[in-house]
């Protein structure tokens, strides 16, 4: 199934390191990150899951629940978590789905057979509280993901969800944002009391509204 931005995130029930999980129930009213990795006991994946565990507070601050997945089995996941904790000096604090029957991988199109028939690629889905897909990224097995970028994107998505703004290239938390084109000039002072710059009629910036 080919998913697109704005689609409903497919629901599923699956075994995980934290027991049987229903995805939508697990997310509740939070934002969610569902990410797949190619295989347990592999070096890049080990660093990725360790990095994710260390970002627990950052995800919590953003009301975001994380869940990982590969097509390895539950016993393998559980053994591997011990290695992740030991080598990455952390405690894996989110569930890892054991998708041996590939049900979830197929639902989310995480297996790209021309890359590898037997393993998931590094997919990331960010899901909003409305259960709609807000972001999809796909990395090859050989490139570990940048989880700081993932946090940056969640910040951007949450700003857009709560204010009529978008974020410019290379935007970082605390920097000015772009006022949505749909906002008329006349409405800007009320909506953005911190002030704004009108660089072009279509390019208007304002300080980050939620600071
Ligand atoms: C890794 O996680 O290190 C990895 C997994 C599959 C292929 C290449 C690297």
Short description:
The protein is an alpha+beta fold and 211 residues long. Helix content is 30%, strand content 22%. It has a five-stranded mixed sheet with strand order 5-4-3-6-7. Strands 8-9-11-10 form a four-stranded antiparallel sheet. It has a two-stranded antiparallel ribbon with strand order 1-2.
List key phrases describing it:
binds benzoic acid, 11 strands, single chain, 22% strand, elongated, Glutaredoxin, alpha+beta, 5-stranded mixed β-sheet, 7 helices, 211 residues
Question: Your description of this structure?
Answer:
With 211 residues, the protein is an alpha+beta fold. The protein folds into 2 domains: 13-143, Glutaredoxin (3-Layer(aba) Sandwich), CATH 3.40.30; 163-206, no CATH class. The chain is 30% helix and 22% strand. It has 7 helices and 11 strands. A 5-stranded mixed beta sheet has the order 5-4-3-6-7. α2 packs across α4. The longest helix has 16 residues, at 147-162. The mean pLDDT is 97. The structure holds benzoic acid. Benzoic acid binds at residues 38-39, 42-45, 141-142.
